From TrEMBL:
GO terms for molecular function: biotin synthase activity. Residues 42-269 form the Radical SAM core domain. This is Biotin synthase. Binds 1 [2Fe-2S] cluster. The cluster is coordinated with 3 cysteines and 1 arginine. It comes from Albidovulum salinarum. Homodimer.
Length: 325
C-alpha cells in the first residue's frame, strides 16, 4: 500500500503519453510543481559509485564495455578487498557524498563472494553513509544476507521498454529483472531502478520504460535516468545522440509519474551542458553521481559539479537527509 493518495501505480499509457508530449513549458511547470510538493527544489543528493568488480561480465548488454561478449577491450578484475572499498568510501564521505554505491559486473553474485559483500555493506553503514549495491540478479538467500547486513538500496535497472529490451540484452529477460526488483522490495530493501535512453529506442520506449517502473506494486525509491555513453567496439558505439529536449522530457515524466522517488541524473553528464543539467534539475532530477568516474565511464569532476551547484544556488543534501518535505 502506498501511503499517499497522490501517488499512483495505475498510470495508463495514454496518460503518460499525454504528459510527455504536452508543450515543453507546460511539462516543465507540471514537473516542477509536483517536485516542490515533495522535495526541497534546491537540494540535490550526491552519491558516489565504485566498481568493486570490473569487466568480464557474462551478460551481453549492448551498451556496456564490461560485457565479455562485446568487443570492448576492458580487462576483467577480481572482487576488490573490503578495506579498499572502505578507504574509498571514507574519501567520498569527506568530499560530501551521503550515499555509497558499489557495482559489480556479474550476472549474479557467487556464494563465495557473499561474506565479502556483507562486510562491505556493514563497513559503509558504520561510516554513517547510505549503502547501495548493484550485483545483478539475486536469489532469496542472497537478498536476505544483504538485508541482514543493513543494505539500504539495491540497484537493478530495467534498461529500456519491454518491447525494445531484446534489442539490447538477450542473456536475461525483462521478466527476470522485474522478478529481482520485486524480491528485493519484498525483503524490505529500497529499490533503485531506472534505465538508459538514447540507445536508438523510440519515444514510446522511453515512455513505456517509465510506465513499467511507475506501475510496479510500489515505485522505486530511486530512479536513475542514464544517457547512453556510446563506447567504442560495443554494438551501440555508432548510435546517434538523443535530442537533449527528449532527455529532459524523460526526466520530467519520471518526476510526474513517481513524485516521491529520487530521480537521478546518472551516466552521460559529461556530454551535457550546464544548461541542460540545470533544466533536468528543474524537471525534477534531484540526485547525481559525483567523482571523476562512473564505474568505467567519465563523469564531471567534483570541482565542476561544485561550480554548477554554486551557479544554480543548489546545495547538497546533508547526510541522513533525503530532501523530502
Ligand atoms: S550492464 Fe552490468 S550486467 Fe550488463 S554487461 Fe555490463 S556489467 Fe554485465
Amino acid at each position: 500500500m502506498l501511503d499517499d493518495l497522490t501517488i499512483r501505480t495505475d498510470w495508463t499509457r495514454e496518460e503518460a503519453d499525454r504528459i510527455y508530449n504536452q508543450p515543453f513549458n507546460d511539462l516543465l511547470f507540471q514537473a516542477q510543481t509536483i517536485h516542490r510538493q515533495h522535495f526541497d527544489p534546491n537540494q540535490v543528493q550526491r552519491s558516489k559509485l565504485l566498481s568493486i568488480k570490473t569487466g568480464g561480465c557474462a551478460e551481453d548488454c549492448a551498451y556496456c564495455s564490461q560485457s565479455a561478449r562485446n568487443g570492448a577491450t576492458l580487462s576483467a578484475s577480481k572482487l576488490i578487498e573490503v578495506e579498499r572499498v572502505l578507504a574509498e568510501a571514507r574519501k567520498a564521505k569527506e568530499a560530501g557524498a551521503t550515499r555509497y554505491c558499489m557495482g559489480a559486473a556479474w550476472r549474479s553474485p557467487k556464494e563465495r563472494d557473499m561474506d565479502t559483500l556483507v562486510a562491505m555493506v556493514e563497513g559503509v553503514k558504520a561510516l554513517g553513509m547510505e549503502s547501495c549495491m548493484t550485483l545483478g540478479m539475486l536469489d532469496d538467500n542472497q537478498v536476505l544476507k544483504l538485508k541482514g547486513a543493513g543494505l539500504d538500496y539495491y540497484n537493478h535497472n530495467i534498461d529500456t521498454s519491454e518491447r525494445y529490451y531484446s534489442e539490447i540484452i538477450t542473456t536475461r529477460t525483462f521478466a527476470d529483472r522485474i522478478e529481482t526488483i520485486n524480491r528485493v522490495r519484498e525483503a524490505g530493501i529500497k529499490v533503485c531502478a531506472g534505465g538508459i535512453v538514447g540507445m536508438g529506442e523510440e519515444q514510446m520506449d522511453r515512455i513505456d520504460m517509465l510506465l513499467a517502473l511507475a506501475t510496479l506494486e510500489s515505485h522505486p525509491d530511486s530512479v536513475p535516468i542514464n544517457m547512453l555513453i556510446p563506447i567504442a567496439d560495443t554494438p551501440l558505439a555508432e548510435t546517434k545522440p538523443l535530442d537533449p529536449i527528449e532527455f529532459v522530457r524523460t526526466v520530467a515524466l519520471a518526476r510526474i509519474l513517481m513524485p516521491k522517488s529520487h530521480v537521478r541524473l546518472s551516466a552521460g553528464r559529461t556530454e551535457m551542458s550546464d544548461e541542460m543539467q540545470a533544466m533536468c534539475f528543474f524537471a525534477g532530477a534531484n540526485s547525481i553521481f559525483v567523482g571523476d568516474t562512473l564505474l568505467t565511464a567519465d563523469n564531471p569532476g567534483e570541482d565542476k559539479d561544485a561550480a554548477l551547484f554554486a551557479r544554480l544556488g543548489i546545495t547538497a543534501m546533508a547526510p541522513g537527509c533525503d530532501g523530502q518535505r
